[in-house]
Amino acid sequence: MTDALLEIHTAVLGGMTRGPKPFARRAETEAEDFPHADLSDDTFSQRLTDESDALTVLWERKLTSWDFEERAAWATAPPRTDERRAEIYGHLGFEDGLRKALTNAAVVSKKPGHTTITAEFTPWYTRERAEARAFYWPAYEKRLRAKGWSSEAIAGLDEASRAVVERLTDPEQVARRQARGLVVGYVQSGKTANFTGVTAKAIDSGYRLVIILGGTLNLLRKQTQRRLDMELIGQENILRGADPNDLDSLVGIDYIGDDEEWPQFVSHGGRPSALSAFDIERLTTRDRDYQSLLQGIRGIEFEKRERGLPLYDSRNLHHADARVMIVKKNKSVLDKLIKDLKQIQNLLGELPALIIDDESDQASVNTTDPKKWESDRPKRTAINSRIAQLLTLLPRAQYVGYTATPFANVFIDPSDSEDIFPRDFLISLPRPEGYMGVQDFHDLDSPILDKERTYANSRAKSHVRGIYSPDEIDDKSMQEAMDSFVLTGAIKLYRAAHGVPDGPYRHHTMLVHESVRKDDHAELALHLNTMWHQAGYTTNSTGHARLADLFQRDVRPVSQARAADLPGPAEYDELRPYISQACSRIRRGGNPVVVVNGDSDKYFDQLDLDFDRQPHVWKILVGGTKLSRGFTVEGLTVTYYRRTTQQADTLMQMGRWFGFRPGYQDLVRLYISRAEKLTKASKSTVDLYEAFEAICLDEETFRDQLAQYAELVDGKPLVTPRDIPPLVSQHLPWLKPSSRTKMFNAQIEEIAGPGRIIEPTAHPTNHIDLAHNTTQWLPLLKRLSTTPVTFTTHDEDYGKDYHLTALTASVSHAELMGVLEKLRWWNAAPFLPHLRFLREIAKSPHLIDDWLLITPHYTTSRGTSASVIGSSVPLALSKRERRRVQIFGYISDRKHRTTARRIARAIPPSSDPVTERFSRDRRGAILLYPVIEDDPSTIVRNGEVDPGKVAMVFSLVAPASAAAAGRPPISFSAIDKSRSDSPIVDTNS
Predict the structure, then answer these.
(1) CA distance 393 to 211
(2) What predicted TM-score, i.e. pTM, was given to this entire model?
(3) What is the DSSP string of 919-935?
(4) Which residues touch 585 (CB under 8 Å, ≥6 apart)?
């Protein structure tokens, strides 16, 4: 039976390619074919109450797509906001009742989208043009929905991949132009999904040669090949007309017969070329990297429908097959490709091509020493040289790098026109839903004191187990990690037996990464094998007693706190039958431990580490370097990590414990050294957990600054990719962002932030400097009123009011600067660009009148108050903790910031009369918190706090009116003034 209402709505929404339009009139026109259709709002609203109704699904997808649409010509409100959704409803002409029903059916996503730093470009990839040629993107989108992707995840991918494609050159453009960009994701976070989407849209729009540079081993290349074959290229392009039921015709065709997921590969419903689209010819297969072709790729020449016109002419381009290859970053393989391309060099000038470089900071970056170059001409490393040759041979080629660790890429010299610096765009992808990243193993910005942290409120307490032994092999912690591996495997089997889908539990792995030396790996693997056979998991009571103890004190309480919705045994005895099943899987094949450190494809082929074709891989993997890039260790649950390095990007890539862990996030454990020697000869040790926390701070600082400067002002970008490198920070002195010997000859000179929170966190640690800073604030503290006031903020998300009782004082800009200029810091560099901005606005007194100093005040005995070296009134002492890198995790309370920003007129008026009384133009706000890190009873005497035991931390909001100063949001200066024209300098010179 025909669903008339669904067909009407599908037709109407399908015609809205340029945004939402009045719905009712269009629906009435479509309803002429369905004279009995009920178009009433009541019927529509009633159907929306059923989330499984196809009509509900249709609207949820369309509304989410409009919610996410960037730079929509039909919208004034920013994407993913209630205001954008209201605007959509307004364009559709919907009344309040229907709006409410639709919002209940399709909740507005507030999740952040991608961030784009871009040079100016010529728009060409319109939604109308994309829709007109769409074939492979809709097929890929359909595949993602079948995998369980949500509408908002697909909409986010749609917009992020569009942001890449629209910055490439129009493939039909007559003038040659090469765009170069970089896409930054998270380690093991789904970057492949993005470049698969980019590939789909690029070939739909006319790109006819796609070269994807995979890993340095076939193991990695095969993973990527299979992913694209399965989700984009599809069955018909793989079969190329062969009959899947005729065994003779399937000779040389991969997947059929040895890949159980072949039925899940995309099916286009016929050869694309027979469906008014075009075929994709694979120049590589799962088992075959690029090999020299007998005719090169001259076949493209014969695909011209109009021989007198160039290939890029639309009359030829959209009738030509696309070529796709996934190749290793291997000198000999790339040489074969370059040799073949040279055979058709005359045609290459007409060929729109796309080069996608996965893990683009590995092997692709030129790391040669500039001092060894001849006549200032770069001497290139092997892979960098081949990429440069490809870009020279393919003048219409676009280059897009993908990485989770971009620092080496942004330190490439932009003046080297043949290199891969992302001169046109840098796109930072958002953290995906369900992803476990470095933040999930650290309690960054947590206001909860260490002693009050529990499995429920602390990520670190739940997932991280420290290794403190100085021994090279610590049997105690290693045994516990191995026990945890067995226990978590048994829990997975228990959950699968109690109704949880077992797909995520297909593989179960543990990674042991201690050394880079192969001899060490072999020795460690032998030791682990011995430990396994002596562990007594199934043969004696000692092993079960040890497992039961770990279950009761670790696994069970964490799972109860973190995964209460998943089934779990209440006692170890309930789990015991699954222990033997888990051990049986781990022992399968004879050896529970696999060493992964070979250099050859042949070596890896012998390991049977094919997560795609093996039904189950339950193993302990020893090694790390070969698994540190790109290769996904499926089912990774327990990691034992003691490997050191002095490069942040290298260390981050070793974090194989990052990724998606559906159905077992609570089981993930990281055993990591807290006191490891950098080298065997070192006397001092480093804390590897602290190192990862520092990396997290570096990464989040970088991403936050990208987001801050991504907006356009008067249609112009605030910063371009050339301005990005100075945004790279370094929180630990011994841990450099990258191993590059070059750095940008630039530093951030000034950050203009009117109306934004400025919150320095690197306050001093020693008694003398703390006392000095406290003394500097004393004149302003004596100005505080003795009568507290109470500010109120309303949190719309929670429907609650929050109150800040505080003492206040009005201080002049000169008085504040008198304090700020004299403060001492643990690290002054992060605050200095903000201080320069505050100095500059002092030169324009008409932009600022005064600052309102606000410091919290306790009206009850719930907190500790004390005088500070003669302050007129006792001050509320706040408790804060420093991170392991000597900086505070957070300063101001999020609710307090709202009050401060309103006082500085950075946000619209509030409903609080007290806040509005203090709010005015040309006024800034300071939130000042006297912070203590010790027990108050040890530092407060006779109602006064030791000034060397209190950190006077603060948040500033410069008046929004200071924006009239016309200063750029960020400005740079040369570090080496004698070489101010040089964007790159050698750090060894």
Answers:
(1) 13
(2) 0.81
(3) --TTEEEEEEEEEE-S-
(4) 489, 508, 616, 618
